[in-house]
Q: What sequence folds into this?
């Protein structure tokens, strides 16, 4: 399965391991993960607490470096890259949606969406602003564009965070419990929005969740237990339309 | 978001604006520190230049005198008992040539040859011991501002004319237009007309100094064609001691600088300057610690935001610069506030520290240069103070920072 359509692979993990020093002994959290995500996939990563989900997500998000194994983003092998190149690759290819929506409160909703573009290009310009406005419209928040991020409701903040994650047209969006902090109704809305972006832009999503209800609505479910993938299956209930 | 501002500037100013109370407090703190430094510097330089002006108003920066005459026995060095020779009034050897050489030195602002010696001023029954000073007025006033000290008549010393101090005028009961007889110790004498009265601000000088033309003094003192000293004014008066040692080595003449003749006064000036520098240094240090502590807190408070910025692709350098800029901006704004405060203090000072007649005791000004130096210095201190917190921010692990 990992060999299928490698040209379309947004993410490819081969024998990925991560260990931490715990006292004198080394503690291996991930024991050699193999995983491939194709363009346009909408996958859930599930597993109990302490299974290594967050560690894996940090590695895939290039926020942390693996102890062993290979990690390809859009075919680029990342283990040999220098820190500055990793940072650039992360900024350009990966979008993050966090559980605690983590906007920068000193900026407005629109400016938060612009932020990845601003960081990448150094200075703001009209095109950036237009792109951010378009993204905000896409998540239904045009009229809140000039609100300070801190004045938005939880659901609105998460919508802004999603718009921000898409600003750089990333190959892969990583969502860590994206609805964990929201009530059921808002959670459904946010999930629907992610799904819509996935369908419209063919953006690849990897969603970490505890919520079986949410996982059940993804196309593919990867289950991690004690640092190993114990099951990786298409979700029959939700096969992609194509 | 201004289109021309780079990311770091936008983030730095937004962070400062968001932490409004903290930013305001530390800017005021920096401002108070800077205002004390600026105010103190202005006060001190005003005070010093005023002191220097008052103390040295009747002294040249540097005076060249003929070398002392030494009695040397013809034989038996060390065996004969040699009495120290009395010093007679002598001219500086070849002073005209020396003057030509001095004129070429860039440090020297003015050269005034002087023929001076003891004499008596006689009028009626009064007979006063005086110091007869022969000058070229045009040159002399550039070394000692005699023209500023005239209280009557005019500064003019043609043949047969003299200027006397107000104290001597009182002693002799003489005034402008009166005749005065001058008896030199060698028996020569002349009768002069008083054409000017001066007040050098020093009672002894006002009672003893009598200014006459160089030629008049030369003939009375038996120094025809000669001068007993050459008075110099320098562009930078604090160079006087260095120059005096050089001139002494080059010419063999005695070169007395105002620094040496007023050694205690100069020591007082120097120690005042040193103590004010120490105070300035410690104020700068406490300002730096203030800025650093505020930024350390800010880094801790913003660690999640820093983490998210890093996740979005912000480099360590961008985070570092964002926080360095905050330090610099706080320093700059604080220094502007501080200069404004210092200016108000000085305005207040001017209205409070006045003489009985309402004129200021002495002039103090905030020079624009001082404000610029304060601004540059405070900005630099701000950036340096931000170095530690900024490096901490830049080295935050995004994973840890985002988890909080």
A:
């Amino acid at each position: 399965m990992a060999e299928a359509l490698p040209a379309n692979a947004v993410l490819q993990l081969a024998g990925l391991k991560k260990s931490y020093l715990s006292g004198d002994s080394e503690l291996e959290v991930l024991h050699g993960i193999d995983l491939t995500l194709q363009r346009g996939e909408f996958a859930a990563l599930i597993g109990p607490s302490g299974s290594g989900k967050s560690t894996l997500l940090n590695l895939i998000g290039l926020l942390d470096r693996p102890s062993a194994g290979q990690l390809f983003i859009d075919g680029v092998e990342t283990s040999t890259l220098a820190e500055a190149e990793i940072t650039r690759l992360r900024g350009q290819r990966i979008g993050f949606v966090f559980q605690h929506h983590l906007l920068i409160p000193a900026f407005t909703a629109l400016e938060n969406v612009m932020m990845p573009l601003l960081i990448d290009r150094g200075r703001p310009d009209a095109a950036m602003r237009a792109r951010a406005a378009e993204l905000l419209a896409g998540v239904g928040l045009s009229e809140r564009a000039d609100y300070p991020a801190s004045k938005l409701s939880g659901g609105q903040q998460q919508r802004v965070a999603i718009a921000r994650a898409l600003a750089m047209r990333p190959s892969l969006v990583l969502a860590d419990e994206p609805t964990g902090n929201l009530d059921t109704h808002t959670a459904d809305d946010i999930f629907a929005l992610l799904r819509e972006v996935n369908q419209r832009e063919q953006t690849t999503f990897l969603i970490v969740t505890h919520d079986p209800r949410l996982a059940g609505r993804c196309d593919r479910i990867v289950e991690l237990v004690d640092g190993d993938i114990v099951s990786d299956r298409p979700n029959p209930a939700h096969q992609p339309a194509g | 978001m201004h289109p021309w501002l780079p990311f770091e500037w936008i983030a730095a100013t937004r962070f400062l604006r968001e932490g409004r109370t903290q930013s305001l407090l530390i800017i005021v703190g920096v401002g108070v520190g800077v205002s004390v430094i600026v105010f103190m510097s202005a006060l001190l330089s005003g005070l010093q230049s005023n002191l220097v002006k008052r103390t040295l108003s009747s002294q040249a920066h540097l005076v060249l005198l003929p070398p002392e005459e030494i009695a040397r026995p013809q034989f038996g060095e060390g065996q004969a008992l040699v009495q120290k020779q009395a010093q007679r009034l002598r001219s500086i050897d070849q002073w005209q040539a020396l003057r030509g050489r001095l004129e070429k030195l860039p440090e020297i602002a003015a050269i005034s040859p002087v023929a001076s010696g003891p004499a008596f001023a006689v009028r009626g029954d009064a007979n006063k011991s005086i110091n007869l000073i022969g000058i070229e007025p045009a040159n002399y006033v550039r070394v000692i501002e005699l023209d500023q000290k005239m209280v009557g008549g005019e500064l003019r010393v043609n043949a047969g004319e003299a200027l006397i101090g107000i104290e001597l005028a009182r002693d002799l009961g003489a005034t402008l237009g009166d005749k005065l007889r001058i008896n030199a110790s060698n028996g020569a004498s002349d009768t002069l007309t008083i054409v000017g009265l001066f007040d050098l601000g020093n009672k002894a000088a006002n009672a003893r100094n009598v200014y006459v033309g160089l030629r008049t003094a030369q003939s009375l003192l038996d120094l025809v064609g000669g001068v007993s000293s050459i008075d110099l004014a320098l562009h930078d008066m604090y160079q006087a001691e260095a120059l005096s040692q050089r001139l002494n080595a080059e010419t063999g003449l005695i070169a007395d600088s105002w620094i040496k003749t007023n050694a205690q006064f100069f020591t007082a000036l120097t120690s005042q300057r040193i103590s004010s520098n120490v105070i300035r240094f410690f104020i700068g240090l406490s300002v730096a610690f203030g800025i650093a502590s505020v930024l350390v807190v800010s880094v801790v408070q913003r660690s999640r935001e820093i983490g998210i910025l890093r996740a979005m692709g912000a480099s360590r350098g961008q985070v570092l610069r964002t926080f360095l800029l905050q330090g610099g901006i706080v320093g700059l704004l604080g220094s502007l506030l501080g200069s404004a405060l210092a200016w108000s203090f000085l305005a207040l000072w001017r209205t409070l520290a006045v003489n009985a007649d309402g004129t200021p005791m002495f002039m103090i000004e905030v020079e624009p240069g001082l404000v610029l130096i304060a601004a540059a210095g405070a900005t630099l201190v701000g950036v340096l103070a931000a170095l530690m917190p900024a490096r901490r921010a830049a080295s935050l692990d995004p994973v840890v920072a985002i988890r909080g």
About this structure: Chain A has one domain: 40-66+81-238. The helical segments of chain A are 53-60, 83-93, 109-121, 126-138, 154-165, 184-201, 212-215. Chain A touches chain B through 33 residues (CB under 8 Å).
